[in-house]
Design a protein that fits this description.
The protein is α/β, with parallel strands linked by helices. It has two domains: 7-156, 3-Layer(aba) Sandwich (Rossmann fold); 159-321, Lactate dehydrogenase/glycoside hydrolase, family 4, C-terminal (L-2-Hydroxyisocaproate Dehydrogenase, Chain A, domain 2, Alpha-Beta Complex). It is built from eleven helices and 14 strands. A hairpin with a 4-residue loop joins strand 13 and strand 14 (294-296). Helix 1 crosses helix 10, helix 4 runs parallel beside helix 5 (135-144) and helix 6 runs antiparallel to helix 8. The N and C termini lie far apart (45 Å). The model has no long low-confidence stretch (mean pLDDT 97). The structure holds 1,4-dihydronicotinamide adenine dinucleotide and oxaloacetate ion. Residues 93-94, 100, 133, 160, 229-230, 232-233, 239-240, 244 line the site of oxaloacetate ion.
Length: 330
């Protein structure tokens, strides 16, 4: 019988496809663990509130023991008031032929007002995960609109890319995913991202040695991971949803529970200048969590290829920041 008081979790875009794959897992305890009751706050645009109400009816019908209540909002200030965990999913997905950055003009305007609403009323310990694309730059916009919230509370989701990289490496080596550690996604959640195996291990051995085929890493592994979103859109006719929801669960669960000893994960966090990434940009890094805050893993040696890939992705983030400024979004 859960005794703790409920943790408030706000999910935007609650009536969308990721929302539908995410909410039931949160309510069942997979986000915050089996001892933590949750109160859900669903934010939708007015025309999708009815659909969100339908999702709430289904949540009721699951009789989840940990679900302490559901509120539905079409106002961001109300949806984020007192919230502890804010999952910013609501935004337009891309369609075939688009890059995620093409969504900036359509979606960027969502994240300033939501950042301001978080600033105005979220709980002191709020943790924010931006999923809506372009996720890194939308997180940058939200953080800029929340001057009173510590910058390290704003994160962007690259855990899906990380999980994709782990899946690809496991398939190639025949190792179980549990044998794989220290994979990194650097940079932007876009086709320029750098999925990096330089420090990764498989069963404790260097991954590059186990694979033994640099051409596969460069010509197959990296593009497969970096372009997986487009492959899913092509195959499904809609962008990834269940795997995205799964990655959001993983991101928050790792943030709250901490990373296992000797391993790290990947997340888009506000750069402190580490690895030459300009301070303030939201870039993916290798990160650990102690259950409180993310820490960027320090001191990793990078070869010339890695340096070039990271710089190229960071350059795209710089360009997106310029575009945000030109659009007056931050
Ligand atoms: N970072 C990542 O790894 C991934 C990011 N995404 C992104 O997540 C976003 C959502 O994807 P889907 O759920 O598939 O889209 P969807 O179109 O199925 O759902 C989006 C929902 O957001 C709602 N919405 C739009 N503006 C809103 C606002 N201002 N406030 C609250 N709700 C709002 C819409 O009414 C809709 O119900 C897209 O931008 C997509 O590209 C998707 C997969 C992975
Ligand atoms: O590719 C997309 O547009 C959706 C997404 O971010 C992903 O699946 O990684």
């Amino acid at each position: 019988m859960p005794a703790a008081s409920p943790v408030h979790v706000t999910v935007t875009g609650a009536a969308g496809q990721i929302g539908y794959a995410l909410l039931f897992r949160i309510a069942s305890g997979q986000l915050l663990g089996p001892d933590t009751p949750v109160r859900l706050h669903l934010l939708e645009v007015p025309q999708a509130v009815k659909a969100a109400e339908g999702v709430a009816l289904e949540l009721d019908d699951c009789a989840f023991p940990l679900l302490a209540g559901i509120d539905i909002h079409d106002d961001a200030t109300e949806a984020f008031a007192g919230t502890n965990v804010a999952l910013l999913v609501g935004a337009r997905p891309r369609t075939a032929g688009m890059e995620r950055g093409d969504l900036l003009s359509a979606n960027g305007g969502i994240f300033g007002p939501q950042g301001a609403a978080i600033n105005a009323g979220a709980a002191q310990d709020v943790r924010v995960l931006v999923v809506g694309n372009p996720a890194n730059t939308n997180a940058f916009i939200a953080a800029a609109a929340a001057p009173d919230v510590p910058k390290d509370r704003f994160t962007a989701m690259t855990r899906l890319d990380h999980n994709r990289a782990v899946g690809q490496l496991a398939a190639r080596t025949g190792a179980p995913v549990t044998d794989i550690a220290r994979v990194t996604i650097w940079g932007n959640h876009s086709a320029t991202q750098y999925p990096d195996l330089l420090h990764a291990t498989v069963g404790g051995r260097p991954a590059l040695e186990v694979v033994g085929d640099d051409a596969w890493v460069r010509d197959t592994f990296i593009p497969t991971v970096a372009k997986r979103g487009a492959q899913i859109i092509e195959a499904r006719g809609a962008s990834s949803a269940a795997s995205a929801a799964n990655a959001a669960i993983d991101h928050v669960r790792t943030w709250v529970d901490g990373t296992p000893a000797g391993d790290w994960t990947s997340a888009g966090v506000v750069s402190d200048g580490s690895y030459g990434v300009p301070e303030g940009l939201v870039s993916s890094f290798p990160v650990t969590s102690d259950g409180g805050a993310w820490q960027i893993v320090q001191g990793l040696e990078l070869d010339g290829f890695s340096r070039g890939r990271i710089d190229a992705s960071v350059e795209e983030l710089v360009d997106e920041r310029e575009a945000v400024r030109a659009l007056g979004l931050a």
